[in-house]
Amino acid sequence: MDVYNPVLDCEFALKIIQKDKFDLIEMDASFELRGKPNQFLNEYYGIIDESPFLFVAMQFANMKTLSVISKYPRIHLPSYTFRALMKQTLEGIRVFHEENFIHGDIKCDNILLHSPLGSGRVYIKISDFGFAKKIDQKNEQQYAAGTRPYMSPELFQKPVIVTQKVDIYAIGITFYHLITHKYPVNERNFKDQGKKLAKLKSIDRPSEIKNDILWDLLSKMLEFDPNKRITASEALQHPYFTSPEAKADISLKQKELAYLTICAQQNGQLWIQENDMNSSFIIDEQEIQKFLIEDNIQIKLKQQQQNEQDDKLAKEIQLLKEKKKEKQRKFNEQEDYLPNKYDSQGDNFIEVENDIEMNEDDQLEIALKLS
Predict the structure, then answer these.
(1) Distance (Å, rounded) from C-alpha 24 to C-alpha 137?
(2) Domain extent listing, the chain
(3) Which regions in the chain score pLDDT beneath 70?
(4) What residues form DSSP beta bridges with 55?
(5) pTM, whole model, 2 decimals?
(6) Which residues are CB-contacts of 263 (< 8 A; sequence separation ≥ 6)?
(7) For residue 7, what pLDDT is reported?
(8) Residue 325 has what pLDDT?
(9) Which of 173, 293, 298, 326 is the most buried (most CB within 10 A)?
């Protein structure tokens, strides 16, 4: 749910959850990070207690999530946009890890997309800190959490030791999925997922990933041994982001937006952060709008199809009712039956219902016709 605040002149999102299921760690992570502003982490504003529910106010993101990109493989995503999406995500989790937190549920659905009004650019927003945990140096987390296809191999082993490396693996899966539109391992349940991962030594390179340098980075993020798995800081220093080829793969729009931001800073704009002026971090809004437009078209088509299906079902139901009424009318005529009359004993009053309910067989008959 999104809400407009006339005092702050901005929209914010309200997350509604049952009070007894709320983990204060989610707020601990967000509030500790408020002192270290980062445009790639979703900001939390506070909690409204309306028992038995809690309303958690957070920053509103206006361009859906990374899932909107993964859904449409036919729409081209330029390499410079993909690289900027990945760079923003790694920078966001780097700051998160710097504060000794583990997110625990990185996935496409938890990486929001937001374009400030008139900015022409898009920021990713790592969100949903419900599984976030503070690192305990004396007693590391001993239980697995997350979304199955994004969970790293060590989460399926015993004893379970959860470190920040689970987030790196999950980001690797996220961007693997963004390119291939599938998961390297996606079994039907937790147990089968663990068995499949146990049989593997590594994730195989898919044919869809043509760039050798990109695959080198992803393979380091998807390393099965968490002790050998790359960190967020190390990933940001990988040649995929720092090589001459990467620096040359910048669009004119990215350069233009970076230049405008530098000018704004020189004119005294205080909201600007260092990454805002770095063209390699910039995502052109128009590149993401292509996916949003297609998504909105598909949503409307599905709604139209559903409406047509509902109309057809309603007509079938009405037709069946009319047939039953006609059948009842003919039966009454044959039996010389009159509504609201006494039976032969004169004791029982009979009343014909105006409406006729359908039994399960009738409903099944209609459903089979429509299937």
Answers:
(1) 20
(2) 64-249, 303-370
(3) 1-10, 19-31, 34-37, 136-143, 335-371
(4) 16, 48
(5) 0.80
(6) none
(7) 41
(8) 86
(9) 173
- Residue 206 has phi, psi (to 5 degrees) of -80, 155
Question: Any residues with CB less than 8 A from the CB of 98 and at least 6 apart, and which?
Answer: 36
Can you tell me which residue has the tokens 């008959």?
365
Token look-up 């082993």 returns: 157
Question: Structure tokens of 50?
Answer: 């309306």
- Surface-to-core class of residue 58, CB atoms within 10 Å of its CB (0-12 exposed, 13-18 middle, 19+ buried): buried
Dihedral-angle region of residue 67 (phi above 0 means left; psi in -120 to 50 means alpha; beta otherwise): alpha
SS3 percent helix, strand, coil of the chain, rounded to 5, is 50, 15, 40
Distance CA 120, CA 141 (A): 41
Sign of the Cα torsion 107, 123, 163, 128 reads: negative
- Report the C-alpha dihedral over residues 214, 220, 222, 228, rounded to 10 degrees: -170
List the beta bridge partners of residue 46: 57
Nearest Cα to Cα of residue 312 among 369, 251, 356: 369
CA distances from 358 to 168, 222, 308, 365, 369 (A): 56, 56, 21, 11, 16
Longest dimension (CA), the chain: 101
Residue linked to tokens 């000018």: 263
140-149: Cβ within 8 A, 24+ apart: 141/102, 145/104, 145/105, 146/104, 146/105, 146/106, 146/107, 146/170, 147/105, 147/107, 148/186, 148/187, 148/189, 148/190, 148/193, 149/173, 149/177, 149/183, 149/185, 149/186, 149/193
**CA dist 109 to 136, 175, 180, Å?**
27, 12, 16
Phi, psi torsion values for 169, nearest 5 degrees: -60, -45
The reply to whether CATH 3.40.50.2000 applies to domain 64-249 is no
